Amino acid sequence: MTGADRRPAHLPDAGRPPDADGLRGSRVVVFGGGGFLGGHVRTAFAEAGARVTAAGRTEGGPDRLGPFLHAVAPAVVVNAAGAVWGADARQMRESNAGFPGRLVAALAALHHPVRLVHLGSVHEYGPVPNGLALAEDLRPAPRGPYGETKLIGSEAVLRAARSGAVDGVVLRISNVSGPGSPPQSLLGTIAARLAQAGRAGQEPVTLRLAPLETHRDFVDARDVAAAVVAAAWRGGLGGEVLNIGRGEAVCVRELVARLIELSGPRTHAVELVDDTEGRANGAGRGRAAWQQVDITRAGRLLAWHPRIPLDRSLSDLLAHHDSRGTTRSMA
Hints:
Blueprint: E1 27-31, H1 36-47, E2 51-55, H2 57-60, H3 65-72, E3 76-79, H4 89-108, E4 115-121, H5 145-163, E5 167-173, E6 175-177, H6 186-200, E7 205-209, E8 215-216, E9 218-220, H7 221-233, E10 241-244, E11 250-251, H8 252-262, E12 270-274, H9 296-302, H10 310-330
Parallel strand pairs: 1-2, 1-3, 3-4, 4-5, 5-10, 6-9, 7-12
Antiparallel strand pairs: 8-11
């Protein structure tokens, strides 16, 4: 049985228009569904009419994973779990490399077909020359434990899919923005700090950050979630790698300045200070100076394109942190 043959029988054929009707009523398990990106994925599937179960460390443990999947009997499994901010090399190996291997083994042992959508990372590619768009046929050469362990996990899924053991597809996700961005992330850190300062009437606000000389491809988490839903039902994807991003490299310093500008009256009170020691915050991910992904293949195979402008993504991120502070103050 090939990867394509293992596609859930009730999902639409590849030739159907790109809608999610075939997911209505289907069981979907999202590992990492309690996290930032996994939460958006969970919401997108629920809006498509799927019955969604968020799974975490308990369900993904070595002794629980197989029985859990057997009991739920999902048609689709999404692996949005992983370790990055605040994780050491051992934790990255376990979450990013070890878990995907266990997951494909557990799925291969099931007696019904399941579509696996695994969320990889742009950091699997490693550093490239400025101006080069990262295409899926580029040979990965990650630097740092995050990219290296994410690549191991993605390769485990691809080997299983290409051998026909599972029906799996890997989405390599670029840098993600939008409401709920973790406070450990660059944009999440700044948005939280601006919201806190605004509530406290603090002035001036000083942000100490690693030097912002890089260019990154940022995509909104809700666009990523839409790509995951599309990848869950379209046929002919077994063993594919698809880049998911905006397809544009933006200067991180300019992006941060725009986030500050969108925060409103607080703008004039913000001072950006380069913190050389802050470089360590990104060391585990590998500090590629340039990241821009080629999303042509995703557009062709998923009929997917990013729809949310960066300004809206940043504004919604700020609104999310402002609303969280308001909710806490009223509690």
